[in-house]
Structures are given as C-alpha cells and as structure tokens.
Amino acid sequence: MNYEESDFGIEYPFEETGGSGDENRIRGNWSLKLDYLFSIFGYTFALGNLWRFPYHFGINGGIAYLIPYTILFFVGALPILFMEVSLGQFVSLGPASVWKLAPLFKGIGISMLFVSTLIAIYYNLITAWALYYTINSLKFSLPWTTCGNEWNSENCSVWNKVSINACRHLNGSFLSNGTCVDFNNSDPSNNSSILVLDSNNKTMTGIEYFHNQVLMISSGILDFETINWQLAICLLVAWLFVFLCSFKGIKTSGKAVYVTVLFPYIILIVLLIRFFTLPGSLNGFLFFMKPNIEIIRDLKVWANAAIQCFIHFQHALEG
C-alpha cells in the first residue's frame, strides 16, 4: 500500500493508482454523499440537543433567546464546526493522528478520544433506559402509572403536588384508587378508603418506578446484589446495536443514520401533533413564543447561549 506524505510528515492513506474502489484504502469512503450529510445532521442536531434546547429556551426569555443564540451560532459555533469538518475530510485521519500537523496539540486529540468514550458510555445507558421503557410500555397496564406494586413506597401517589392542592381547594377527599371525591355531592358508599395525603411528602409513581424498579438504587457503591438484569440486557442490546452500526466503519454507519436520524424526528412530529390536541397546549405554546426582550441585556443569558451553542454542535468531540 502506498502513502503520500506532506511537508508536515502526515501520512495520507490514499491509493495512488486510478483504479476502482475507495480512495482511502484504510478508513474507506462514504458510499453516498447523502450518507455523509445525514451523519453530520444527526451529529449536530442530535436528539439530546432537542430535549435540552426547549428547557433553556423557556427559562431564558422565550423566543427572544434566539437572538443571542443565533448571533453566537454564526459568529462562533458554525465556523468552528466547518473547520473541524474540513480538517477531518481533508486528512481522513482520526483525532489522535490528525494532530501530526501540530504535534504540540496532540493532547487535544487524545482528550477528544477520552471524552468521546465517556459520552458513549452514558449515552448508551440512556438508550438502554429508552429500550426498557419501550418494552414495558407494551403491557396492557403501564407499570409506572399505579401504586401498589412491589417497588412502591408508602409515600407513592398517583397525584402530583398541583393535583393534590387542587383537590383540597375543592374540599375533596382522596381515595386509595387515586380518585378525588367530594362526598357532599356524591355517594360515599364505596370500598375505597379515604387517604390523608401530605402533598409535600408524596412521590409520583413514575419517579418511584424509575428509581426503585428501573435503576434499583442500591445502598452504596459496594452493593452488587441489586442488579436489574432486564436493564443489563437492554444495555447489552444497545452496545450490540452500536457494534453492528460501526464494525465496518462508515460503510455500515452511513446506512444506519437513515434510521437513527429520521426515526426520532418522525416520533417528535407525532408527539407535536399529540401536544396540540391536549387541553391547555395553546397556552404552553404561547408561553414559549412570548418574547422577553429584557434578557438581551443579561450577560448570563448570553453566556448560557454560548455554552449551549458549543454543546449542541459538540465541538472537539471527534465528530
């Protein structure tokens, strides 16, 4: 195999002959230009960015938050993204090898590998949670919507704090089945007992399900007995999926992105349609769209926008 060398001593693993096949014989080339574009899109607009952005959008002045975010996007985030992508496409080397052009900064490439490894670990754990919930959502009765399960505590409540206070405001009483009843206007003859609830000490069923059943939070780091084997299998499946998508490099990952990128956005569109069918959805939408221009003068908002820009585009993460 022949290599071309530049003045910087970088080996370019390109084939010198003009025959058929990939130009890059070591790493391979994208089968289609669309594979690369989908990969970049999925990398820069990942699902994790979509669930973080609305939160910061809401707490930083609504739609006015787009002003500092857009400015910092074009001034800082986008140029750095183009620089990283251009450098990677030009030399076709990994993050550790690419810094042969400037050996002083080789530590940056090693740090990128280290950080990417850590991120892959916890991202795959989130994938395992999603798979676990998806499987259990196929049951006739969703396990995280009721109390009385073996993982529930005495403080379990199917009502949240707002609902409890609303029921008390109506002079209602809680039943063990989670119903708010006004005995002055209804028949009290039923088999359900009245519950005395303290809204400050109650835990939602979904929280208890996640902590006690999904995570099975143990007594300490040395407690190895409380392992959720179902979740462990889901984690194994998640890592197996990563292997199948990447064992042949960009040849397989380039095809997998059509599913991993498009499917989440299809689900988000479905959820958006469902959102607008719920009562009060318009009020929530208007809350996000109501601008608070005063935030433009707040340096903390600008700092938050800068941080989110760099987090969203995942700079220096071996993309």
UniProtKB/TrEMBL annotation:
Q: What keywords were assigned to this record?
A: Disulfide bond, Glycoprotein, Membrane, Metal-binding, Sodium, Symport, Transmembrane, Transmembrane helix, Transport
Q: Where does Na(+) 1 bind?
A: 42
Enumerate the InterPro entries for this protein: Na/ntran_symport (IPR000175), SNS_sf (IPR037272)
In the UniProt record, does the keyword Aminoacyl-tRNA synthetase occur? no
Q: In the UniProt record, which is one GO cellular component term?
A: plasma membrane
Q: Please give, as recorded in its UniProt entry, the membrane topology of this protein.
A: Multi-pass membrane protein
Q: Name one GO biological process term.
A: amino acid import across plasma membrane
Kindly indicate whether the keyword Transmembrane helix belongs to this entry.
yes
The residue ranges crossing the membrane are: 34-51, 63-83, 104-132, 227-244, 256-276
Stored Pfam families: SNF
Q: In this UniProt entry, which cysteines form S-S bonds?
A: 147-156
Q: Which positions bind Na(+) 2?
A: 49
Q: Where in the cell is it found?
A: Membrane
Domain of life (superkingdom) = Eukaryota
Family of this protein:
Belongs to the sodium:neurotransmitter symporter (SNF) (TC 2.A.22) family.
PANTHER family in alphabetical order: SODIUM-DEPENDENT NUTRIENT AMINO ACID TRANSPORTER 1-RELATED, SODIUM/CHLORIDE DEPENDENT TRANSPORTER
- What protein am I looking at? Uncharacterized protein
Q: Which organism is this entry from?
A: Meloidogyne enterolobii
